[in-house]
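Design job #97: recover the sequence.
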């Protein structure tokens, strides 16, 4: 079946995932416009067809063009992909707002929860873009390391949207022989799964950094999933969402893959490094660090038991010793699964 033509596709955010999605879309549709913050990075992408900061060594298609002008990237876009770290999302959305058409299909590929408001990206879209119809708002999530997509390794993800026709448009826009897109009507579940799995990935990394084995990691993934399902269903998500690509699929990838930034933070913490030192050393954002605070606060707000999240919060923000976190998790009151 022939793909529909999209005359203008914009991607907001020039990190590794934003650049990867822009590259994918440019290959499929012939052109994509990528908004990046700095003039220097913009020039390098356009001259060398490479993002030397976030994806060094990967050639980008000729149809991918970078710009620092947000109006140019947003105005008249048929599809607009939003890939800005969650704690910076509000400011960028407010800058975009005057230029977003109600007909534009908005796709969030950000996996995080705003700290101050505890809002997901879908909730921020509704607040910051009140003129834009929710039927044209969606998110894209699933097990997808940027470098593996750039290396043309087969990948499957989920596009979530309340409106089936919009979900199908996104599915058609992104799908290629090596990038398969499923649809799901549960935006809440897909977004929460994508955000919360990063917290569990930090826990899995801590375990690996401390020298624990496969038993420990498998336990963290399984019980971490139980925590995600508890909070997600309390917030209105469909439980089945957490057993799909955006849920357990992304959870397994992020907790076990060496390309996971969040797992890497955990590994280094488990080896005794400080959080400040780790973050100062990283070029890219590990969303799980900030999301841990949001997840902790959401759990408290809704009375949901999330012991792994609680211990990672204490480790990151209260300087609790990692071994004390393990001890307190293992010695909790015994109960049925």
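Job complete. Output follows.
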């Amino acid at each position: 079946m022939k793909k529909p033509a999209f005359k203008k596709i914009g991607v907001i955010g020039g990190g590794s995932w934003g650049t990867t999605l822009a590259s994918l879309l440019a290959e499929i549709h012939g052109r994509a416009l990528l908004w990046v913050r700095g003039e220097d990075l913009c020039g390098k992408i356009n001259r060398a067809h490479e993002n030397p900061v976030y994806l060094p060594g990967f050639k980008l298609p000729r149809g991918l063009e970078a710009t620092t002008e947000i109006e140019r990237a947003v105005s008249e876009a048929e599809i607009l992909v939003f890939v800005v770290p969650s704690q910076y999302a509000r400011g960028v959305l407010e800058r975009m707002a005057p230029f977003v058409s109600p007909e534009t299909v908005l796709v969030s590929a950000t996996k995080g929860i705003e700290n101050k408001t505890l809002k997901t990206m879908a909730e921020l879209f509704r607040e910051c873009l009140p003129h834009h119809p929710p039927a044209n708002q969606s998110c894209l999530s699933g097990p997808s390391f940027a470098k593996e997509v750039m290396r043309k390794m087969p990948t499957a993800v989920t596009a979530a949207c309340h409106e089936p026709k919009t979900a199908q448009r996104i599915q058609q826009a992104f799908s290629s022989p090596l990038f398969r897109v499923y649809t799901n009507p549960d935006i809440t579940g897909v977004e929460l799964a994508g955000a919360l799995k990063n917290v569990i990935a930090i826990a899995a990394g801590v375990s690996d950094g401390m020298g624990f084995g496969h038993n420990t990691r498998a336990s963290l993934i399984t019980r971490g999933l139980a925590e995600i399902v508890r909070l997600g269903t309390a917030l209105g998500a469909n439980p089945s969402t957490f057993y799909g690509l955006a849920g357990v699929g992304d959870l397994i990838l992020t907790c076990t893959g060496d390309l996971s930034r969040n797992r890497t933070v955990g590994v280094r913490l488990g080896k005794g490094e400080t959080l400040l030192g780790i973050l100062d050393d990283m070029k890219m954002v590990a969303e799980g660090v900030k999301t841990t605070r949001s997840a902790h606060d959401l759990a408290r707000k809704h009375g949901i038991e999330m012991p792994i999240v609680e211990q990672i919060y204490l480790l990151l923000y209260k300087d609790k010793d990692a071994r004390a976190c393990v001890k307190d998790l293992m010695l909790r009151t015994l109960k049925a699964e």
